[in-house]
Amino acid sequence: MTERTGALARDAVTEAAASPPTGDALEDGAVTARLEEAARPGVMAMPSRPTGQGLLAWLRWAWRTLTSMRTAVLLLLALALAAVPGSLLPQRGVAFDPGAVTRFLADNPVLGPWLDRLGFFEVYSSSWFAAIYMLLMVSMTGCVLPRAARLWQSARAEPPRAPTNLARLDEHRRGNVTAEPAQVLEVAASHLRARRFRVVVDETSVRAEKGYLREVGNLVFHLSLLVLLFGVAIGSLFGFEGRVIVVEGASFTNTRLQYDEFTPGPLTDAESLTPFSFTLEDFTAEFEMSGPQRGSARDFQAEVTVLRTPGGVAEEDTIAVNHPLQVDGTKVFLTGHGYAPVVSVRDGRGQTVFTGPVVFVPFDGNLSSEGVIKVPDAQPTQLGFEGFFLPTASVDPAAGPRSLYPDLVDPQLLLTAYTGDLGLADGAPQSVFRLDKTDLTQVTSGDQPFARALVPGESMTLPDGQGTLTFESVSRFANFQIAHDPGKEIALAAAVALLLGLTVSLAVRRRRIWIRVTAAREGGASTIEAATYALTRRGPVPDELSSVLAAVPGAEPAATDASPHDRED
Amino acid sequence: MPTPTFLAELSDRLIYSAIAVYALAMLTYACQAARRSPAVAHDVRQMEHVAAGAHTGRNASSPPRTVVDRATTEGAATQRLERIAAALTMLAFVLHLAGVLTRGLAAGRAPWGNMYEFTAAATLAATAAYLAFLRRQPVRDLGVWILALVTLCLGLAVTVLYTPAGDLVPALNSYWLVIHVAAAIIAGGVFTVGAAATGLYLLRRRADARDTSGQATRGYAGRLPAGATLERVAHTAHLFAFPVWTFAVLAGAIWAEDSWGRYWGWDPKETWAFITWVLYAAYLHAQSTAGWRGRKAAWLALAGYAAFLFNFVGVNLFITGLHSYAGV
Asked: What angle is formed at CA A216 by the lines to CA A214 and CA A219, rounded to 5 degrees?
């Protein structure tokens, strides 16, 4: 059949022929046609300024500019750049460290407020970030929908007529055939049909096209981005996210008031949350015992008893990292843990005025924790305690009290005491993790602040009989994140469609093949010409043309013409 | 059954051996690039131009078959060096692969649970992508650059990032670790080939633009494959890697939903994955936009690769976020 030059030589041809790279290639008809095909309507003809007068002309120009590929590229670039500051600056409601923005503002009193005004601490919900992606979505829709219309038309239309000069196309073969032209065409057509080409046979030629799926994939990909955005919007409008700390033995009921932190969407019905509740029965944590990663967490588990409906049957369940509890559409995730020393406090009168676990917040990997104990019922004066809980205690002369290991090896509670007014009476909300020291006096012994380190079972008595605190035992607490996102199924479906569409649109090559037979003059052999033309930037499918020609009866080997745009793949 | 300690030590030795062989392969590629003398390259290109001229001429009925066999012109010595370099790369790849596998066996899990392991696996993917391309595409000129990067990264991995084999923090204890990170590693490997081809494309293109005399371009850039060839290699690589990267990001989102209760939270790692994705998307669009094709599109692809690298190095080392447990 037709001969193929050696791969090495072809390589040389390709390289040389295509050099210089784009300069003359752009002027060439075939490539320009491909660009037109790949680009959207209006790109090539896009006027650089409005044509004609009046608002309508201006609007038409604006729409064309917005939906042009060039604008899409610029918007994508802008989107990438706009996303950068959010990863470098602390973000409200994003960072896992909620105090980061406040600290940054305190550290940068000049720059901070300006950045805040411009939305740099809420980049991903800022108006300028939204403006970029909304414009991008509009641009994309304005481009993709007309393209879909053209796909619909071209899928119903026949493959176009063969160009006069087939040699200009991506791959071109010419040879002689002895068989009847009509028979040759019919064989070629059925060969192409078997390969699922759309085929039309006319008097002298076969025209075929394949790879419409590429356009479908492209369309699905772009439209599923819109659906994805819709799913995200549903989630952030109707969903919520909340955090709660639960100590061993305590319960949580899914109502807004029980959350330590609750972030609803603008349209969330916060009064009718899924009515479930659970009790944290036991929390276990395992840590690496030895080696360089000593102290690294290895396993966390929260054993819970769940009531999926009020008054329902209690079920035992385990919540672990990567293993959330799911009740209807609400998921409960285990995100952290720590220690809650159980203390009891007797006041100056000798009455027990407080008993129970107090959450101490961990601040390093070995669970060194800090916290406060507030005893508003103490008489004659209210009592407050502040200090550290260390699961494996040590006091570093430089760094102060630090835990050496996250598990309970040598638990100690280090406290100082305050007397006076805790400031709870005026009704102003205050943190349970901090003492408001405006009306408090630190208890002293001699001229030093009164401070004690307690092991479980130990007590400390304040000077002058102001009260006694007993460190009874240690409980653990777990941090739970509870989330409900009604848009996530939509988002997931969109993501699957997006991936499928993208893969199809990048993998499938849309291409056309033309076979033309010129009837013999006065008894000689007929001439057969075959050419393929890729409508995508990747070249034609290798050997596809050869296989058509190999199927044609009575063909003789003849010249191969690798055209300048031959790209092997 | 060998003990985990033995396997971990074996893995370390295999990785060290791989580094040595990679370095040799890189030097061999460098010698090969240097040995192709400018004069020879000049001749080749002139003859290619002759051949190409015959083809671009529309008189296609009798195209002269005088295409130069580059190999004979370039000399047997250069060709031998090239074969040695490829063989050394293969050898280093096998050692590297064995090192990664034994590491996984030693730890009893997917061998990409910390930054050291991720670096070892990602560089393995880069070499694999290079070798896969070498079979079908004219990418041997990329070899010296890709191997330089692989050698450098592996060197940093064993010196700076090294972590002994061990268990994972609970958050990583999920089959999504295998899926999500493997996809990111594969995409990263192929993006590396794409970035190397793009970089050389820009070099070659600049050299072509300077050379207005019509003479063959001299120097290193002049001996590279033609701009269009490099661009095509880069395009093929990006076309493959982009959907894989998309999958990695989506799988990460699904895992995040299961682990942290939200599928997207603008954690720094997520943000930079998004930036990488958007930049490569911009590249793919630019490739079919008049005025952006070629140079500008190439810069977008390089920006995408820079974002990918930053996501791995910068975000792990300089920014705290939920992914920090994957750190050193």
From this structure: 110
For A548, the token pair is 């058509």
How do A352-357 and A361-362 pair as beta strands? unpaired
| Residue B245 forms contact with A (CB below 8 Å) | no
Calpha distance B296→A501 (Å, rounded)? 26
Report whether A363 contacts A403 (CB < 8 A).
no
pLDDT in tens, A5-19: 333 333 333 333 333
Question: Closest Cα partner for A204 from A187, A224, A231, A182?
Answer: A182
- Distant-in-sequence, close-in-space partners of A478: CB < 8 Å, separation ≥ 6: A245, A246, A280, A283, A300, A302, A319, A334, A336, A337
How would residue A50 be classed by pLDDT, with cut points 50, 70 and 90?
A: low
Q: Are B180 and B258 in contact (CB under 8 A)?
A: no
Q: Which residue pairs, CB below 8 angstroms and at least 24 apart, start in A132-136? A: A132/A75, A132/A78, A132/A79, A132/A82, A133/A79, A133/A229, A135/A66, A135/A75, A136/A72, A136/A75, A136/A76, A136/A79
ipTM: 0.81
Nearest CB to A16: which of B52, B163, B303?
Answer: B52
Contact (CB<8Å) A77/B300: yes
Q: What does the alpha-carbon distance between residue A501 and residue A495 come to, in Å, rounded to a whole number?
A: 10
Task: List, for residues B272-289, the tens digit of each pLDDT value.
Answer: 999 999 999 999 999 888
- Burial class (CB within 10 angstroms; exposed 0-12, middle 13-18, buried 19+) of A86: buried
To which H or E segment does residue B224 belong?
Answer: none
CB A498 within 8 A of CB A230: no
A66/A71 Cα distance (integer angstroms): 6
Task: Tell which phi-psi region holds residue B159, choosing left (phi > 0), alpha (psi between -120 and 50) or beta.
Answer: alpha
| For residues A286-311, average pLDDT | 81
Question: 0.90 exceeded by the pTM?
Answer: no
Close Cβ partners of A157 (under 8 Å, ≥ 6 residues apart)? none
Contact by Cβ (8 Å): A463, A457: no
Q: What is the pLDDT of residue B60?
A: 37
Q: Which residues on chain A are in Cβ contact (under 8 Å) with B228?
A: 14-15, 18-19, 21-22, 25, 567
What residue spans define the domains of chain A?
45-154, 158-211+510-561, 217-239+486-505, 241-484
Partner B contacted by A94 (CB < 8 A) = yes
Residues from chain A that touch B211, judged by Cβ atoms under 8 A, are none
Give residue A250's identity as a one-letter amino acid code. A
pLDDT band of residue A22 (cuts 50, 70, 90) is: very low
A567 shares contact with chain B (CB less than 8 Å): yes
Q: Would you state the pLDDT for residue A293?
A: 67
Q: Does domain A158-211+510-561 have CATH number 3.40.1350?
A: no
Share of chain A above pLDDT 90, in %: 26
Please confirm whether the linkage preceding A275 is cis (ω < 30° from 0).
no
The pLDDT tens digits of the residues spanning A517-550 come to 887 666 667 788 888 888 877 777 878 888 888 8
Secondary structure element (H or E) that encloses residue B37, with its range: none
pLDDT at A21 (0 to 100): 34
Q: Do B282 and A77 touch (CB under 8 A)?
A: yes
Q: Could you tell me which of A507, A569, A519, A515 has the C-alpha nearest to residue A547? A: A515
Tokens of A532: 């393929």
Cα–Cα distance measured from residue B142 to residue B29, given in angstroms and rounded to the nearest whole number: 9
DSSP single-letter state for residue B325: G
B128, B64 in Cβ contact below 8 A? no
d(CA B122, CA B182): 9
Question: Closest chain B residue to A319 measured between Cα atoms?
Answer: B259
Which residues in chain A have Cβ-Cβ distances shorter than 8 Å to B303? 80
